[in-house]
Amino acid sequence: MTDAGETTQIKAYPMPRPQPMHPPREYAELRQQCPVARHLLPSGRPVWLVTSHEGVRTVLADPRISSDRTHPGFPLPYEVADPEVLKKLFRFSQSLIGLDPPDHTARRRLLISEFTARRMQALRPRIEEIVHGRIDEMLAKGSGADLVQELALPVPSLALSELLGVPYQDREFFESRTKIQINHNSGLDERARANGELMSYLDGLVAAKEQEPGDDLVSRLIEKNREQGQLEHGELVALVALLLIAGYETTANMIGLGTIGLLDNPGQLAVLMADPGTAPQVVDELLRYFSISDTAGSRVALTDVEICGTRVPAGEGVLALGLAGNWDPAVFAEPERIDVRRDARRHLAFGHGPHQCIGQNMAKMELEVTFTTLFRRVPSLRLAVPSAQLRYKDDANTYGVYELPVEW
Ligand code: HEM
């Protein structure tokens, strides 16, 4: 067993990308030298970066490694001194994604039946309508649009409204508030205010459905909770908020990046166009290639643990880097190539272990419908500026583009 942190000089994390579509160079270097290496976050907290596919899976499945955001050793990128502010910030995550078993297991059980393949099949025709509707509107405006505004943001927002039973007319409110809440560039006060507004809206929504249930996730969640008496009203509201936050910007960013990936690789797009039945495979490869939630595997070691031969002391942060794992050439040959014919199903873009993305069936379905419909209906679609000149979200939790100017 090695002690990589003690023998090497501590370097800073995050590192810049050499080009927008590629991970930082250090990921590959670290993977070769030692896939588990101690770094320092801007907050000054230490974090152990894990860069191999095997290492990422090991960390995410280890019950001695916690997801609890409120643990003093959790690898927060920024320092928050006020415990009250911290509590508010993590209200949503501590409703599920920041819990450890057994609390996490019971909470997840309440939701899991809402995201089965069968439920998603039932939702699919509605998602198809949503995508067609947005493309109709985009085309009606003439050639030239920002695909982020016209398609990538509205599709998951409307899909979530549909799933949860959020009225259509409230979607703008959702978009704006969730945007602020997830944006690490927003000030802490601004984010706290957005949290508050979102919570009070959802409070009202949950209360309305308690009185008058509909055929939607929130109503069924209320019913299940009545039977089991697990959650207080506020916790139920926070759980619904988490679904919105977790399912919104992630899917939007994948729509934007996936479109760029296909337009920049016409040979790969041709495979999808020749046979729309390849869509699930295409989507898996795009999810692997972009791995937009690179830092979702943030954890803290509860005891001393050994990861791939390196000792990580109790109380220190661990970052199981999804992008590094998904570009591990031991698992995906020539990872820097988008190859929609490869079997990418072992990718870690949705995480691994107990917290593996609960909404993955929904996300995949939205992406499949969006890409097949978009390229079928707008076969002349092209980028209005080269992809290297776009503004990428280097500063955000989830990677993506801020704008995507297209023409047809
Ligand atoms: C968890 C990625 C879409 C809801 C996760 C995790 C990842 C992820 C990496 C694991 C986090 C961890 O290990 O701590 C993505 C990506 C998406 C996407 C890349 C889109 C392309 C969605 C959607 C929903 C959703 C559409 C719901 C509508 C959740 C929830 C969790 C989660 C609730 C926490 C699960 C738990 O803690 O048990 N997601 N996600 N996600 N995701 Fe997603």
- Hetero groups bound? protoporphyrin IX containing FE
Task: Give the neighbour order of strands across the main sheet.
Answer: 1-2-3-9-6-4
Determine Rg (CA atoms, Å): 21 Å
Global mean pLDDT: 92
**Would you tell me the structural class of the helices and strands?**
alpha+beta
Helix content: 40-55%
One letter per element, helices H and strands E, the order comes to HEHEEHEHHHEHHHHHHHHEEEEHHEE
Please tell me about this protein's structure:
This protein has about 400 residues and is of the alpha+beta class. It has one domain: Cytochrome P450 (Cytochrome p450, Orthogonal Bundle). The protein is built from 16 helices and eleven strands. It has helices at about 5, 25-35, 55-60, 85-90, 105-110, 115-140, 145-150, 155-165, 170-180, 190-210, 215-230, 235-265, 265-275, 280-290, 320-325, 360-375; strands at about 10, 35-40, 45-50, 65, 145, 295-300, 305, 310, 315-320, 380-385, 405. Strands 1-2-3-9-6-4 form a six-stranded mixed sheet. The chain has a three-stranded antiparallel sheet with strand order 5-11-10. It has a two-stranded antiparallel sheet with strand order 7-8. A hairpin with a 2-residue loop joins strand 7 (about 305) and strand 8 (about 310). The chain starts with a helix and ends with a strand. Mean pLDDT is about 90; it is low at about 1-5. Protoporphyrin IX containing FE binds near residues 160, 243, 351, 357 and 362. Protoporphyrin IX containing FE binds next to helix 12 and helix 16.
